[in-house]
Write a structure and sequence with these properties.
Length: 495
């Protein structure tokens, strides 16, 4: 299977738009295709709409965003991508026909995944060429913020395809959940449907409004579900003897007809009640407004869960660990190439929400970017999560930023790093931030760090291997002319 650099989308509605936003954010190029040419403008709007919340998800250094292009030709898309994600309407015959066509245009090592909510992969792969690369990759709306993707193989799907697809999904920050056996509706939609069916019954029977039923979830079980699923939560509810006691106590209720197995008839009256109920809940707020509110909450919840390394927060942590590791690996490569020039450590782009009221990158982001460059350098000499967990770290004791020119939204940038000095406990660095297109200097930072024992809460000598690694950087750059801005104090005239 190929390394995925370009993702092809087949169908660019709600779900296709969500895949585009996620993939682009993590540096994957996207070729979007849709039979409806008007979807070109739509998908660009969807990506823009997602960008705000996505950019707040993590402070870890991200690669430069991917590039988005659009075509209404399936063949043109299929011939230039490494992975195809299909997101056309949920109709079996349509999907079978379009997937078969995609398989004739895409080379046999291009994986093809369907976002289908409930169709079975064995049915979808029926008429395809190289059907072993077809799988279901079922995401959840909004795809750009919810990490879950159900990964399901059909009778002819190869295990290698499932592994490779899971690897790609993980790369773009998702949690691939391998479904052992294909069943209609996979796992999650079976559960969601059971809940929805009961909602429809209760609204139909006039027992509760849509708002009251939503309250019954968001103030209670919904809060628990983000951290632990129903099973683990019920295990806790059983007291000391856990699930066994829970089943003994509440198991008999399952025989009572609390719930219905079939959905009620979707009469006009029921449809009206559902629509009027949810309109009352929306209280005049547009779908876009509600989406932004939902997205802000989803970001905040994942950041809290990350602190506890649980659920979607654990996925976010794993993603960040990979992003930081990548920047450390890039730093090692840069060192090898930096004998006669400052090492180019970090490539980035000014994200739209980094810009202040003057239209330029705001002050705090300079410190973040320079901090990321330091982090990449330190990782290259072994200062990573394990190092910090063992009770050692570098603390910033001084920083001096000079601003040389402006950086606007979406400006490509890169940071070069020089090690000016290192001794037992201190590290002096000099970073330069440049524009990616013409190399113009945007800002510089001179930084002093102290090596500390975080357990003892005081400065401590760095281990010999770390010191030697930093010395290698310093020696490699020793012949370079001293930076003009180094050692300057605020307000002193140049020269
Ligand atoms: N909406 C959800 O919450 C959700 C969640 C998970 C999975 N899904 C699944 O994702 C798929 C897409 O759902 P959606 O909600 O994005 O639908 P949608 O109606 O918003 O988008 C479908 C898009 O497919 C395009 N299309 C139709 N025929 C096509 C063809 N032959 N070739 C290329 N494009 C074509 C349409 O023009 C449209 O833009 C479905 O299989 C659905 O079950 C939906």
């Amino acid at each position: 299977m190929r390394q995925v650099k370009t993702l092809g989308l087949l169908g660019t509605g709600v779900i296709g738009g969500g895949w585009a936003a996620r993939a682009l954010h993590f540096g994957i190029d996207v070729v979007a295709s849709d039979v409806n040419p008007k979807m070109q403008a739509w998908i660009r709007g969807a990506v823009q709409n997602a960008a705000g919340a996505l950019s707040r998800l993590t402070m870890a250094p991200l690669p430069r965003p991917g590039r988005l292009s659009f075509t209404s030709s399936l063949a043109a898309m299929a011939q230039q991508v490494d992975f195809i994600q299909e997101n056309i309407p949920e109709q079996l015959e349509l999907k079978q026909r379009v997937l078969a066509e995609a398989s004739r245009h895409a080379s046999a090592d291009v994986l093809i995944a369907s976002s289908t909510s409930g169709l079975m992969p064995s049915d979808l792969q029926r008429d395809m060429q190289a059907p072993e690369r077809l799988l279901v990759g079922h995401p959840f709306n909004p795809v750009y913020l919810l990490p879950l993707v159900e990964v399901v193989g059909g009778t002819r799907t190869s295990p290698a395809a499932l592994d490779a697809a899971s690897g790609f999904y993980r790369y773009i920050g998702m949690h691939p959940l391998r479904v052992r056996r294909e069943i209609p509706g996979h796992l999650t939609d079976r559960l969601q449907e059971a809940l929805w069916r009961e909602i429809l019954h209760m609204v139909n029977d006039g027992v509760a409004s849509t708002g009251e039923l939503d309250e019954s979830i968001v103030y209670g079980p919904g809060l628990r579900w983000a951290a632990m699923g129903t099973n683990l939560i019920y295990h806790l509810a059983g007291g000391e003897t856990g699930m066994r006691h829970m089943l003994r106590q509440f198991g008999p209720c399952l025989k009572w007809p609390w719930t219905h197995l079939e959905a009620p008839e979707l009469t006009e009256a029921l449809i009206d009640r559902m629509v009027e109920g949810t309109q009352a809940q929306a209280a005049g707020r547009s779908i876009r407004e509600l989406e932004r509110l939902r997205d802000d909450c989803l970001v905040a919840i994942q950041q809290v869960l990350r602190q506890y390394d649980i659920g979607a927060g654990a996925t976010l942590r794993a993603l960040e660990a990979r992003l930081y590791q990548q920047s450390g690996a890039a730093a090692r490569l840069a060192l090898a190439a930096s004998v006669d020039q400052p090492a180019r450590l970090l490539e980035l782009e000014v994200r739209p929400d980094w810009v202040d009221y003057n239209g330029h990158m705001t002050d705090s982001r300079y410190l973040q970017v320079f901090g990321d460059a330091t982090d990449a350098l330190l990782r290259s000499v072994g200062v990573d999560e394990a190092y910090r967990a063992a009770g050692q770290s570098f603390y910033t004791v001084e920083s001096h930023v000079t601003h040389q020119s402006e950086a606007k939204a979406q400006q490509a940038l890169y940071v070069t790093v020089r090690v000016l000095g290192v001794d037992d406990k201190r590290l002096q660095l000099f970073h330069c931030l440049h524009r990616g297109d013409d190399g113009v200097l945007v800002a510089t930072a001179e930084l002093l760090y102290l090596h500390v024992s975080s357990l003892a809460g005081k400065a401590a000598a760095m281990p010999p291997a770390v010191r030697a690694g930093l010395e290698r950087w310093r020696e490699a750059q020793a012949k370079l002319a001293p930076p003009a801005q180094a050692g300057r104090h605020v307000g002193l005239p140049r020269g």
